[in-house]
Amino acid sequence: xxxxxxxxxxxxxELESQLAFQDELHENLNNIVARQDRELIDLKRQLxxxxxxxxxxxxxxxxxxxxxxxxxHY
Length: 74
What we know:
The chain is mainly alpha-helical. The protein has one helix spanning 5-59.
């Protein structure tokens, strides 16, 4: 092996430093993913509410009823 004790200690210190950095990065990424998940759930809820509201408004305007109805000439 041929490495001195001080060299091994330096390498271990470097590895511990890298591990601490990776742990912090991992925690930050977990927080970001959790926040984005909450935002996505909220956006889906808002989209459903807007879709329902558009449907309600469209039903109240003559000629803007459901688009999947068969035209009268069929």
